[in-house]
């Protein structure tokens, strides 16, 4: 799935997480941003496709394989490898926690009790980040198996999960619009709670669950099987078919609007 949809999925999680925070508006924006960042982070392993990778990182680390080979392999550092595992999300969260703790304490009065208190104070941040990270992994599972056969969710296990091909890599406009709907509705809930007394925790959680349920339904009811193993000469055919499916789902007007939006942004979407 594309990085824009991944990032917005994290932001959607953030709109739920801030319901459980009594911090300032700026802190809540930080929670949302961190969740979005966490949801985008796993795809940083695609850096091996960067045109200057071989001349920079490849040369620095004296890598035997080219960036393109690394990307389409199943090394632990390949795409859908380590950075697409729950362990990676957990490890990054732990490292992030300690960095925040040391910066906040200025390396003074370090103790387990202070560390525990620091974690409690920032638990909404940490949960938002790892939740955003994890939803990215789950969203990649229904994409084609390709050379990986899913994502290495349980690294260091060699098991790859997913790769079902229920959806194509890009142009899943219906899922994108559902996620936007979650963000907008939860934004309205947070705005409204200042005017009338409502339980924002229950409502934002319910909106998110409803959105996820609708997304799963959309994923599992595609009228075409996009799966393939290895590389496929039918790539353009699948791409075209994916857009045809979107046109059937969204109708001509909404589909054309999304297609224009897709063509205007400089990333795969």
* H/E element sequence: HHHHHHHHHHH
Number of domains: 1
Please identify the structural class as seen in this structure.
mainly alpha
Strand percentage lies at: under 5%
The residue fraction in helices comes out at 55-70%
Low-confidence segments, given as residue ranges, are: none
* Oligomer designation: single chain
Keywords:
single chain, 269 residues, mainly alpha, 11 helices
Task: Give me the secondary-structure topology.
Layout: H1 3-17, H2 25-40, H3 57-60, H4 67-71, H5 86-105, H6 112-121, H7 123-140, H8 173-192, H9 200-220, H10 235-250, H11 252-264
Helix pairs in contact: 1-2, 1-7, 1-8, 1-9, 2-7, 5-6, 5-7, 8-9, 10-11
Please give a structural write-up:
By secondary structure, this protein is mostly helical. It has one domain (3-264). Helix content is 59%, strand content 0%. The protein has helices at residues 3-17, 25-40, 57-60, 67-71, 86-105, 112-121, 123-140, 173-192, 200-220, 235-250, 252-264. Helix 1 runs antiparallel to helix 7 (123-140). The protein is globular and about 60 Å long. The protein starts with a helix and ends in a 5-residue tail after the last helix.
Summarize the structure.
It is built from eleven helices and no strands.
């Amino acid at each position: 799935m594309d990085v824009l949809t991944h990032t917005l999925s994290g932001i959607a999680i953030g709109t739920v997480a801030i319901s459980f925070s009594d911090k300032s508006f700026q802190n809540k924006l930080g929670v949302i941003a961190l969740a979005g960042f966490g949801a985008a982070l796993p795809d940083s392993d695609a850096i091996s496709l960067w045109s200057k990778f071989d001349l920079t990182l490849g040369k620095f680390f004296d890598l035997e394989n080219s960036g393109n080979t690394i990307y389409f392999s199943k090394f632990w550092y390949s795409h859908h490898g380590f950075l697409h595992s729950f362990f990676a999300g957990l490890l990054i969260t732990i490292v992030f926690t300690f960095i925040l703790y040391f910066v906040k304490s200025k390396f003074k009065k370090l103790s387990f009790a202070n560390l525990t208190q620091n974690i409690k104070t920032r638990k909404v941040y940490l949960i938002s980040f790892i939740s955003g990270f994890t939803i990215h992994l789950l969203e990649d599972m229904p994409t084609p198996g390709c050379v990986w056969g899913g994502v290495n969710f349980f690294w260091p296990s060699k098991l790859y999960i997913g790769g079902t091909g229920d959806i194509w890599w890009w142009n899943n406009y219906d899922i994108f619009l559902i996620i936007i709907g979650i963000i907008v509705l939860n934004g309205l809930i947070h705005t409204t709670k200042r005017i009338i007394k409502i339980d924002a925790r229950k409502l934002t959680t319910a909106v998110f669950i409803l959105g996820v349920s609708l997304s799963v339904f959309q994923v599992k009811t595609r009228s075409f099987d996009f799966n393939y193993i290895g590389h496929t000469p039918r790539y353009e055919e699948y791409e075209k078919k994916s857009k045809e499916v979107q046109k059937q789902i969204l109708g001509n007007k909404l589909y054309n609007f999304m297609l224009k939006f897709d063509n205007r942004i400089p990333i795969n979407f």
